């Protein structure tokens, strides 16, 4: 078997395994965060969580597939390790960037929700308070 093909197979197996592991970890631990962001609406949190996981898989597996091709032919075992370290390093950086992007967006949504909850008007909108004399 050609060493380049061996490098491709190892790259695909490791990249797909990492993508699945990260997606499951984010899904499991992110559900609680989403429930808080969405004010305890469990069904909506589960739906958003599922949509985020599907998008995560599509983007990351698409990137892994696009990044598979290589112009150089792997000549020896050292070349396999060099090619894999470069490819897997880039995949890990993309996974990390996707994770940080998701956390940033969800944190912004959470902060906005917290600010909205804190902005309770002093009176109900239907009520009226007479102005004070001398105020």
UniProtKB/TrEMBL annotation:
Alphabetically ordered keywords of this record: Membrane, Transmembrane, Transmembrane helix
Spans traversing the lipid bilayer: 6-26, 47-68, 88-107
The organism's place on the tree of life at top rank: Bacteria
Protein name: Integral membrane protein
């Amino acid at each position: 078997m050609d060493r380049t093909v061996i490098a491709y197979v190892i790259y695909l197996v490791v990249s797909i395994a990492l993508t699945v592991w990260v997606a499951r970890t984010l899904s499991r631990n992110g559900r609680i965060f989403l429930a808080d962001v969405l004010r305890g609406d469990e069904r909506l949190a589960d739906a958003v969580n599922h949509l985020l996981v599907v998008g995560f898989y599509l983007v990351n597996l698409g990137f892994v597939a696009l990044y598979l091709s290589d112009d150089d032919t792997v000549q020896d075992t050292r070349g396999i390790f060099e090619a894999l370290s470069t490819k897997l390093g880039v995949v890990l950086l993309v996974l990390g960037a996707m994770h940080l992007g998701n956390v940033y967006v969800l944190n912004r949504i959470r902060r906005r929700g917290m600010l909205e909850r804190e902005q309770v008007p002093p009176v109900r909108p239907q009520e009226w308070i007479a102005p004070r004399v001398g105020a």
